Amino acid sequence: MDKRKAIRYLAYSLELIVLFILQETPGLMFSLWGERPSFLFLCMIAIAQFESEIPAMAFGVFGGLLVDYGMGGVMGMHALMMAVLCYVISSFSRNLLRNNVLTAFIVSIGALALVFLCDWVFDYVLVYDQYRVYALTHHYLPRYGITVIWTPFTYFFNRAFFMRLRSAQD
Q1: Structural domain count of the chain
Q2: Is position 155 within any domain?
Q3: In the beta sheet, which residues pair with residue 32?
Q4: What is the CATH number of the domain that holds 86?
Q5: What is the pLDDT of residue 75?
Q6: CB-based burial of residue 69 (10 Å sphere; 0-12 exposed, 13-18 middle, 19+ buried)?
Q7: In 25-95, which residue ranges form alpha helices assigned H by DSSP?
Q8: What is the C-alpha separation between 17 and 32, in angstroms, rounded?
Q9: 3-state class of 26 per DSSP?
Q10: Residue 112's domain spans which residues?
């Protein structure tokens, strides 16, 4: 493995760990309607837009395990979901899409909607008989909205990592 690629992967790993710590520390991040943004999802999506399929999938698994650990849910659900999603996003970014902030915003809107919708279905629709709509409108939609707003910042931050530490193969 190229030295620049190893440093870039280390930087991505440290970014995911730091964002996990910031996201899970109570009272540290701002909240909107009681919900804080999920920076880990945005970071995994942004990494997938710049890396090839296998590293994107690996970072999806790593970030998904961090999300699973932080949320206290079923261990591995987000890891599996984000591995598949990051693989697909990376494949589309490499072969079909132009990689710019507009496509990053559109991909993030769709990917985050899919992730939060799956969370809602697995956590509320399949388990509880009550409060499904309340959970969707007061928990998942505000979290989705406040997370999507941060898409350009995570895109440009990860783009800087990729452009600065890009190897000759990339």
Answers
A1: 1
A2: yes
A3: 35
A4: 1.10.1760
A5: 82
A6: middle
A7: 39-50, 53-71, 77-95
A8: 23
A9: coil
A10: 3-164
| Dihedral angle, C-alpha 18, 23, 25, 26, nearest 10 ° | 170
Per-10-residue mean pLDDT, the chain, length 170: 83 92 78 77 92 92 91 82 94 87 91 91 80 80 88 87 70
Rounded Cα distance between 99 and 102, Å, is 8
In a domain, 99, yes or no: yes
Flag whether 169 is in a domain. Answer: no
Measured CA to CA, the distance from residue 21 to residue 23 in angstroms comes to 5
3-class secondary-structure state, position 35: strand
State the Cα–Cα distance between residues 83 and 85, nearest whole angstrom.
Answer: 6
Nearest CA to 108 out of 150, 145, 78, 151 is that of 151
CB 102 within 8 A of CB 44: no
* DSSP designation for 73: S
Alpha-carbon gap, residue 85 to 136, rounded angstroms: 22
Q: Which of 76, 88, 87 is nearest to 122 (CA)?
A: 76
Two structure tokens written together for 39:
């920076």
